[in-house]
Structure formats: C-alpha cells, structure tokens
Amino acid sequence: MSYGKLYLIPTPLGEGNPADVLPAPVLELLPSLQCFVVEEVRTARRFLSQAGLKGHIEGLEFHQLNEHTPPAQVEEYLQLFNGGRSVGLLSEAGLPAVADPGSLLVALCHRHGIEVVPLVGPSSLMLALMSSGLNGQSFAFVGYIPAKADERRNALKALEKRSATALQTQILIETPYRNDALLADMLQCLGPGTRLCIAANLTCPDAFIRTRTVAQWKAAPVSIGKRPCVFLLLA
C-alpha cells in the first residue's frame, strides 16, 4: 500500500494574520493539501481562509478528531492516506498533537510507517517558558491538573514540592473559564517566595507576560479572565 505523508500544521494562538506567526513555507504548503484532520471544522475553515485558501474551502475534505472521537474512528482515518494522498493535521491553536487529541493520529501513522512531517509554528508552552525567566534547562509540562478544588490544591502543593526538590520549572494550563479559580488557589497554596509566571494571549497584541513571587502577586492581584493562558512556577 502506498501512503502519503502526515503534515503537522501549526495555527496561530489568537486572532490575526497567520503570516505574522507562521513561516512562508507552511503557508505555501497549504494549497497542495486537499484533506485535513481537524479538532474543530469551523475553526479550521476560518484559519485556512485567512491563510490564503479563501474561495477554495468548499473543495476541501475535513475529518474531525477531538476528545469525543472514538478510537475506532481514528483507526479508519488510515484510509485517508491511501494512494499516496497527504493529510494535514490542525489543532484549535498552536502545535497539533501537544496537549491535543491529534496525537492519536500521529501514533496511528507511526504504527503503519506513514511519514510524519512537523512544521514550524508557535508553541504557547515554549514561548511562555522562554519569556518567564524561570529554569529553561529543567522543566516539566504537567498539562491540566484536577478541576475539583481540593484535588487541585493538593496537586499544586505537590508540584511546588517537586519544583523545589528538582529545581525544575513546572508548566501547566487550564480551561480558560477556570483560569482565575486556578490563580486564586495558587496564591492561597503556594509559598510566598515561589515564583509564578502568568503568560496569557501569547503572540497577540494584548499579550500579558509577568513573573513575580506569590507574595508580589498577592500584593497586586490580576484577573486573567477567559484568555488562553500558560502558568509556570519555580519554587
């Protein structure tokens, strides 16, 4: 069986011109693809239109892959590569397959010997780390921590302890509508000297990036709201 390639296509982290954050070779590749596996079809169509495919969207083929997609359906996506056809993978924002269900498609391709081609684009995690001033040599991305208040506070204390023991930056994210609840628990549970970076709306005109101690955040609190945000802590 002859298979095409899987292209991992980054998308902007917020609204704006894709050319401001994506290299020209990524944008130049898009017109050559007719089939896309996407986290959300409406978002993907809007991105591709802004990226130069306006007027050609109706001729494209979209298949959805998100947290609700059953494993059996992901397996069926193998046929998309038949006959040497290449496929593009799109996340809602940023890099596909990083804290993203698209990793299931990447794993499928590796199992069947399909070439996976990662393309250059914005990573909120790396952008946040490089702009935090925290330890960029030893760090861990822990993803989402528990949503329930008691479990979340226990998780934060455990992360702080791990950070102090290993001198390691801990990176976490949250569903935007829980940002302020997470920040409130951080200020309540973490030690006053622990450094905390809040990096919201990265690459956007209103990007907010600040690193302060917990004591300093308490003295001058902020509201993040529903902006996409990365949190980093170093005890």
Write the layout of secondary structure elements.
Elements: E1 6-9, H1 24-29, E2 35-38, H2 41-53, E3 61-64, H3 71-76, E4 87-90, H4 103-111, E5 116-118, H5 124-130, E6 139-143, H6 149-166, E7 169-173, H7 179-189, E8 195-200, E9 208-213, H8 214-219, E10 229-234
Parallel strand pairs: 1-4, 1-5, 2-3, 2-4, 6-7
Antiparallel strand pairs: 7-10, 8-9, 8-10
Helix pairs in contact: 6-7
Helix content: 25-40%
Sum up the overall morphology in one term.
Answer: elongated
Distance between the termini: 53 Å
| Average of pLDDT | 96
Level-1 CATH class name of the largest domain: Alpha Beta
* SSE ordering: EHEHEHEHEHEHEHEEHE
Number of H/I helices: 8
User: CATH architecture of the largest domain, please?
Assistant: 3-Layer(aba) Sandwich
Would you count the extended β strands for me?
A: 10
**What class, by secondary structure content?**
alpha/beta
Strand content: 15-25%
Which fold name is given in CATH as the topology of the largest domain?
Cobalt-precorrin-4 Transmethylase, domain 1
Largest sheet: 5 strands, parallel
Q: Are there runs of 5+ residues with pLDDT below 50, and where? A: none
The CATH superfamily label of the largest domain reads Tetrapyrrole methylase, N-terminal domain
